Amino acid sequence: MKLALIQMDIEWGNTQANQSHAERLIIGTPDADIYVLPEMFSTGFCTVPETYAEPLETPPSLRWMQKTAHLMDAAVAGSLLVTDGQKYYNRFYFVFPDGHYEYYDKRHLFTFGGEHLKFTAGNRKVIVEFRGVRILLQVCYDLRFPIFSRNTPDKPYDLALYVASWPTARISAWESLMVARAIENQCYVGAVNRIGTDPSIAYQGGTFLVDAYGRRVGEVATATEGVLVETLDLDKLVRFRKKFPVLNDRD
């Protein structure tokens, strides 16, 4: 399984420009199995969603994800700001090459930034399976809540994906908690964060892959756009879990 984690700048509220930008980065990185984009990659992280939300029935960015997944014969994943006309969701889509998709609505809304005032929280833990890998979908602030992401016998996974707009001011927490999630869940963790600025916040990235030992397998340089491509070694992960079966002792 070859994973491509995309660290990109996002133009505030400009869906078409952000789609085109992401498309260039994806097409320039052929042969991956999954391409992962940051949180709200089509608009930037917005807690006043009335202006920028895409219609839930036919989000243009979801159609673009489907087209791109078909073109690349790969999955495309990332979160979008969507609405059904009454409620707003920070929705993480995982789009398969044939166009069908699964989604996860962000469970933990960022109250410090007012996200809870306009958005509806999800209530489902979502794990998708693609090309032999079981993948947990998570969004930004979810990172701080380990019980929800626990790797359990009834819902096991091999890779956790965290897509985010995580600010520079709290980047040390981002880096530390990603390692903790990988170690405690004995899994790979893919961290995908944006760079640039929005009207009030600066972002420096912090896109990397952590293995089950808590070691960084690879990363994108700070404050630069780039795509990290790494191959997941599932056989190695299985051997480690058998040799050191800590998940059998979980609460």
Q: Which keywords apply here?
A:
251 residues, 6-stranded mixed β-sheet, 5 helices, alpha/beta, Nitrilase/N-carbamoyl-D-aminoacid amidohydrolase, 22% helix, 7-stranded mixed β-sheet
Write a structural description.
The protein contains five helices and 15 strands. By secondary structure, it is α/β, with parallel strands linked by helices. The protein has one domain: 4-Layer Sandwich (Nitrilase/N-carbamoyl-D-aminoacid amidohydrolase). Strands 1, 2, 3, 4, 5, 6 and 15 form a seven-stranded mixed sheet that branches. Strands 7-8-9-10-13-14 form a six-stranded mixed sheet, covered by helices on one side. Helix 1 runs parallel beside helix 2 (60-72). The longest helix is centred in the C-terminal third of the chain and has 15 residues, at 171-185.
CATH topology: Nitrilase/N-carbamoyl-D-aminoacid amidohydrolase
Largest sheet: 7 strands, mixed
Specify the structural class: alpha/beta
How many extended strands? 15
**CATH architecture group name:** 4-Layer Sandwich
Helix content: 10-25%
- Oligomeric form of this entry? single chain
Please identify the top-level CATH class.
Alpha Beta
Unreliably modeled segments: none
Summarize this structure briefly.
The chain is of the alpha/beta class and 251 residues long. The chain has one domain (2-249): Nitrilase/N-carbamoyl-D-aminoacid amidohydrolase, CATH 3.60.110.10. The chain has helices at residues 15-27, 60-72, 115-118, 171-185, 234-243; strands at 2-7, 34-36, 54-55, 75-83, 88-95, 101-105, 127-130, 133-139, 159-164, 188-193, 195-197, 202-204, 208-210, 216-219, 226-231.
